[in-house]
Amino acid sequence: MRARALIEAWAVLVGLSAATTILSIFEVSGRGGVIIAGFVLLLAGIKARVILSRYLQLRNSRFWTRSFDFAIGSFLLLSFGLFAVAIEY
Amino acid sequence: MSNALDRLPADKDDSDHHKAHTTQETGDGWGVLGELPGDLMMWVLIMSELLVFGAALIAFLAVRTTDPAGFAADQALLNRTEGAVNTIVLVTSGLCAALAVHAREINKRATARRWLAAAGVLGAVFLFVKGLEYWSKASAGIDIETSPFFTFYYLITGFHAAHVVAGIVILSMVAWADSLRNMETGVAFWHMVDLVWVLLFPIIYLLR
User: Fold this and answer.
1) Chain A residues 14-53 with CB within 8 Å of chain B
2) Which of A83, B7, B41, B137 has its CA 20 to 30 A from that of B24?
């Protein structure tokens, strides 16, 4: 059963990677580029969560799942903010 | 032969490790630390590495605010296809490593070793593609001093590639000393390498 769950996690990761690549194809400047960047970082965050919860087996630990969600979420928000500042100004 | 190897009884050391693993798994006396698979020190290392890579990527984005046009022009010289291929290679390698731990949990030791070997080979494929990428940049006269963008690019991706090399060595070691605890610990390092890449790739290659 766990092998099947791991393969499903892999399929999700491949699908999200493909979605990220497709999003990055669009040559959009200005605010549209910021929105696409937001989606690209959101997909990266979801991929990170899949790796942590499935590959690293943290899904059964609420504490570690929340801690990593907070740390990676904060990192991605800061990254998005810095990217948006560079585009807007 | 592999089936015979699969049926080998766990040695005493392995049994001890399994007890330790079980203790940590249930969290007896360890609190939330007991909920982390593998060796606690590896998790200290993993969190330290994530902080280092996180700081480097934030520094990259902070410097980018001073010259967004220059960074975008340099970023356009990167090969996103190679980066995307390497993402698939690394997440597939992570699957192989996770399946190795699963096989070891059900005492299929030879199968676990084969999955570890597959993970290591895919790690080598990642390095090969990365080598091609560096070669094309070097051929175009692009090096670490070309621009701030490429200084960050070489430092961050090079540091990550060094971790892939270390990961392959660690996978080889835990294939040899293949207690469940060792395997969980070594494979956790490999997943950290995978995790860093899925955060690094979009920031350096895709955000523009």
Assistant:
1) 14, 17, 20-21, 23-24, 33, 37, 40-41, 43-44, 47-48, 51-52
2) B7
| B68 neighbourhood in chain A, CB within 8 Å | 86-87
Residues 6+ apart with CB under 8 A from B26: B34
- Shortest CA gap A84–chain B (Å): 9
Between chains, do A14 and B191 touch, taking CB under 8 Å as contact? no
Name all domains of chain B by residue range, CATH numbers in brackets: 2-7+42-63+73-206 (1.20.120.80)
Domain that holds residue A9: 2-88
> pTM for the whole thing?
0.87
Q: How many domains does chain A have?
A: 1
Determine whether the interchain pair B84/A72 forms a contact, defined as Cβ–Cβ distance below 8 Å.
Answer: no
* Residue B86, burial from CB neighbour count under 10 angstroms (0-12, 13-18, 19+): buried
Q: pLDDT tens string for chain B (208 positions)?
A: 344 444 444 444 444 444 444 444 444 567 888 888 878 889 999 999 999 999 999 999 999 999 999 999 999 999 999 999 999 999 999 999 999 999 999 999 999 999 999 999 999 999 999 999 999 999 999 999 999 999 999 999 999 999 999 999 999 999 999 999 999 999 999 999 999 999 999 999 998 8
Collapse the DSSP code of A19 into the 3-class scheme (helix H, G, I; strand E, B; otherwise coil) and give the result: helix
Q: Give how far B36 is from chain A: nearest CA, Å.
A: 7
Rounded-to-integer distance, Cα B26 and Cα B31, Å: 9
